[in-house]
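ok so I'm stuck.
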Amino acid sequence: MSSSPAVSISNLTFSHTPPGNPNAAVVALKDVSFHLSPRSITLLIGGNGAGKSTLLYILAGKRLIQHGKVDVFGKDVFKDFPPNLIYLGTEWAMNAGVRRDIVVSDFLNSVGGYRHKERRDRLLDILDIDLDWHMHAISDGERRRVQLCMGLMGEWDLLLLDEVTVDLDVLVRDSLLRFLKGETISRGATIVYATHIFDGLNDFPTHIAHMRDGYFVLNPTPWPLNPSDVADSQIIFKSGPSLHAIALHWLASDRAFRTKEEKEGRRVKTRGPRNHITSGDVDRESFYKKYIYVHQNPHMSTDTMVSQI
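replied:
not stuck anymore, here's the structure
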């Protein structure tokens, strides 16, 4: 593998149009530029809607960009897609096709498991998978383990993870993270990982980044952070440089930033309780007061109420 950047993004801006409103473009990423070196593990930190998933989708070649340049191992990800790139996201386990009555051993062989027997067997042990499981009869967490085994058993060079460890128990997750870290050390692989679970991650990333509203408040920066790398360093490092404490502070500051913009009239307030009543609100309230069972029988349980509708 060359010493050139594993990922190179320059002046990336990406917009999408919400369903049913083609004239209202939403800017999901704003002027993003950074480089990631081989062997790095970058943790993306940001609230829901910050742009993490959009960025990973673009890196995986799943979203065509309107402005900027995205290269993976020196290749334009849209014109010359690198075969050594793996994207693993949460939507896979919800696909009806992987919830059919398929034996796990047959499923893995159908996607080439027999070609990667040594790595496949190692992952079967790490992820604690039973080859006799049937895909339709296992839990979401077990199905997620099968997805990870399927995606990781080849020798990938860039791995994009989008919340894909959310269903794993703590033991399997820890074993998986150790395996992934070893891949970056022994093979020079690169990982970009978006998650909201920060426990047990202090020794995992080589870089962390802070995303807010589609832009990078902090570009990928070596971890552990130096106080000089970030604003509010005295607050962040007061309880020690833990990822959980830093993520908590950053997400709280993101919410405070949004609230300040709403009060100053630079952003329309759409979240939380509404302080004004529209005609639509009145109509809905009148309907529910008239028809919902709970108003007719305040002592009725929610389960009973739903079962009678």
